[in-house]
Each structure stands twice: as C-alpha cells, then as structure tokens.
Design brief:
Structural class: mainly alpha
Helix content: over 70%
Number of helices: 18
Number of strands: 0
Radius of gyration: 38 Å
C-alpha cells in the first residue's frame, strides 16, 4: 500500500498491474454484487425529474434530431439503402400476405348507424332518379315521385293524385309503406353483402397487395423526402409534454410495481453469470481492459501526484 501511495515509487507498470488485478477481480463478481433494484429505482427517480428531463431533451435529443433531419434533407439516397436486399424481400413478402379484417370490426362498422343511413340515402336517391326518368313525360310525375321517395306527405299526395287519377291518400300511404319496406330490406341486404365482401379472401389478398405496394413505394422515397416529412412533426409540443408525462407515470403505483419487477428480473438474469462472462458475450472484455490501460493509468498517475492525494497519504 505504501508503494502505491508514494507517487515517486509508482510507475506505469505497477499501475497497469494494479488495474489488471482490480479488473479481473470485478470480472469475477456478479451484477447483483454491484447494484440492486433500490439503487436503480433511485437513479431513475432522480433522472426523471421534469427539469432534468427537459435539460436532457435540450442538450441531446433536440440537437441530435435537428442534425439527423438536416443530414437527411441533404441526401438523395433512397430509403431502400437502409435495408439489405434479402431483408427487403422478406418484409415485402410478409406485408404482402393476405390481411383479413377482424370480423368483429367488420360487424361494428357495417352495422353502424352512419353506414345504415348512408346506404338508405343512396338507395332513396337511386330509386328517385330511376322513377323520375321513367315518368319524366308524366305531368308533375318526376317532381312528385321524388317527394314520394323522400316520404314527404304533401309532395307524395300530389304525385299520387297527378299520376293515378285521384286514388288519394290510401294509395299514397300504401306506396309509402311499400317503398319504406323496400328500402329497409335493401339496406339490410347491402349491409350483408358489404360485410361478406369485407370478410372475403379477395379483400384480404387485396389489402395484402396494397400493403406490399405501399412498402415498396416507401423504399423508393429519398432520405430528403423523409427529412422534410419528419421536419413537420409537433416536436415543440411533444418535448414540452415529455417531462410531465414521465414524472406523472413514475408516480403511479402500477407503473412503479411493473418497473420494479422488470428491474428485478433483469438483475436476476444478469447475475446468473459473472461480469466477465457478460463482457465475453458482448465481445468487449479485452476492449475494456485496454481502455483501462489507456485511460485509467494516466489518470491514476496524475491522481497520485496531486496535492489531494499527498494530503490523504499524510493522514494515514
């Protein structure tokens, strides 16, 4: 210890050997020996304070986003360059698969009042148009019959009297009932046919083909076009909301419980191996050791030569 504490007696070889021993010792430890769930949560809570999240966004996220968008806008490369050809083919094939619409969604949409009224209006307009054309030569016929289709009593009465020679209100009522029944039955038939069409294999194949075509067309767009598109994002609004949203959710009991459980599960998995084995899996053990030699040794040399270190050694 005295050798390490006396700056004149410490050389780079000794420091390198010291850090090698310390590194090997750390590699034999497990992650759970170095950190626990409570400390991770405390670090998250500290870093997630709104002012710190805002500062992080201002220092790192916003400048990086601006640089990325500016870099993209100056590029004429197609987006396809981001994917290897084999990957593009796999994704295109995946997106081109038949995409059936969930039956529940079809039933909800087709049976909606909005669809029902749209179909009814369409049928009424179509029937009215046909009758008007068929009886265009009849005095007052076209105009009166449009009123019948719309179930307007006064126009319907005028039409029935004009066309059928005064059979009167009974004919009007029967005609209205027949037309109403016809339209209602037609609406139900159209809804049924529409649901069958949406649920058919042809529709599923068509949607898949459209998805594939859209994907391939997207890949033909340039990075400049993508940059211009993303430049329009509501980032000022979102960046202002993120700090509040993060702080809000970290205070929710269910979020904290889930976060705690995930941290515990992660630490448990990482602790099934020593730190060294984890570094080996990442392929960085020797890189970390070399970094210690390159960066830690000069820092340690400067530290043991500092007045603070000298004052500390005198206190021993």
């Amino acid at each position: 210890m005295r050798v390490l504490c006396e700056s004149r007696q410490v050389d780079d070889a000794q420091l390198t050997r010291f850090f090698d021993l310390a590194f090997d010792f750390a590699c034999e430890r497990k992650v759970s020996d170095l950190v626990d769930t409570a400390r991770v949560l405390a670090a998250i809570d500290a870093g997630a304070q709104p002012t710190r999240v805002t500062r992080f966004l201002e220092r790192f996220v916003q400048p990086a986003r601006q640089r990325l968008i500016a870099r993209a806008k100056s590029s004429q490369l197609e987006l396809s360059v981001w994917l290897p050809e084999a990957t593009r083919d796999v994704l295109a094939a995946f997106l081109g698969r038949p995409a059936p619409i969930p039956r529940k969604l079809i039933d909800e949409v087709v049976a909606s009042e909005r669809v029902r009224e749209s179909v009814r209006a369409m049928m009424q307009e179509s029937i009215s148009s046909v009758i008007e054309k068929a009886f265009a030569a009849t005095p007052g016929g076209g105009k009166g019959l449009r009123g019948v289709i719309g179930f307007g009593a006064r126009a319907a009465g005028a039409a029935s009297r004009g066309l059928f020679g005064g059979l009167g209100d009974e004919l009007q009522r029967q005609l209205e009932d027949r037309l109403r029944d016809f339209v209602d039955g037609g609406v139900q038939l159209v809804q049924t046919r529409l649901a069958q069409k949406l649920a058919s294999e042809d529709t599923a194949r068509s949607l898949g083909a459209r998805g594939k075509a859209a994907f391939l067309q997207l890949l033909q767009q340039t990075e400049a076009a993508a940059g211009k598109f993303f430049e329009q994002g509501p980032y000022a609004l979102l960046d202002g909301l993120w700090p509040v949203v993060v702080a809000h959710n970290l205070q929710r009991a269910e979020v904290r419980a889930a976060l705690t459980a995930e941290i515990e599960a992660t630490l448990a998995e990482l602790s099934t191996q020593p730190v060294g084995a984890l570094l080996d899996e990442l392929g960085v053990r020797e890189l970390v050791r070399a970094t210690l030699h390159e960066r830690a040794v000069p820092l340690a040399r400067a530290f043991v030569a500092s007045p603070q270190f000298a004052a500390w050694t005198k206190s021993l």
